[in-house]
Amino acid sequence: MAIVSIDGISLEISIALVDELEVGDCVLVHVGYALAKIDPTEAKRTLELLQELGSAGERRS
Fold it and tell me: What is the pTM of this model?
């Protein structure tokens, strides 16, 4: 088990599916499980995209 921070929110997730993780690694998380270790640059781009999508949804409401 590990604690992850996603956009300022901390969650406890299972890391049983991913080998050789270290503190500070970026992972793809789905329904409480780390699925894969990902490159920090890719993680940053993904978070930025999700934030843009969230902002676009807010403008439509």
Answer: 0.76
